[in-house]
Every structure is written in structure tokens, then in C-alpha cells.
Amino acid sequence: MDKQELDRLLLDAHDRNDHADLIRCYTIAADEHEAMQDIDAACFYLTHAFIFALECGAPEADALNQRLVAYGRAHKLDF
Questions:
Q1: Burial of 38 (0-12, 13-18, 19+ CB in 10 A)
Q2: Is the pLDDT of residue 1 over 90?
Q3: Using CA atoms, how far apart are residues 20 and 69, in angstroms rounded to an integer?
Q4: CB crowding 12-37: b at 16 or more within 10 Å, else e
Q5: Average of pLDDT values for 1-11?
Q6: Helix (H, G, I), strand (E, B), or coil: what is residue 37?
């Protein structure tokens, strides 16, 4: 996805306070940075996705937590 388009989608999701879209968009951004081997940026976006997933009890929280654990950026939580 084009960076400008993703940025627009993120801003729109924030404006609407749409946690599902925020989780999706931040995860896409993380995936793209991970593919570029920019792990710091990927973890930045993963952390945002994880926080929004925790806030709304989304099922994605476990997988996001596992990805952060794999990079040494979080402790494993039990869901």
C-alpha cells in the first residue's frame, strides 16, 4: 500500500476512533516495514496495533503480542 494512502487511512481511522481499522492499518504498516527489514519501525507500528487491540479486547492482541515478543519488545501475555 502507498505510504500516503496508509497515512490517510490511519488519520481517518483516528478521527473516527475506529479501533478495528486502527489495528488493521497499523498492522499493515508494521508488515511493510518488516518486509523492508526496518524492525524498529515495524515494532513501533506493532506496538500501536497491539495497544488498540488491548483497548477493545480484539482477538488480534495475542498475535500482535507474540510478534513483539519475538523481537524482544514485549513480555508474553496470556489471553
A1: middle
A2: no
A3: 22
A4: ebeeeeebebbbbbbbbbbebbbeee
A5: 93
A6: coil
Question: How far is the C-alpha of 1 from the C-alpha of 75, rounded, in Å?
Answer: 30
Query: Which cell numbers hold the place of 47?
Result: 506496538
> Residue 37 corresponds to which cell in the numbers above?
527489514
Mean pLDDT of 35-62: 97
Segment 20-24 shows an average pLDDT of 98
Q: How far apart, in whole angstroms, are the C-alpha atoms of residue 73 and residue 76?
A: 10
Q: How many CA atoms lie within 13 A of 42 on its CB side?
A: 17
**3-state secondary structure (DSSP) of residue 59:** coil
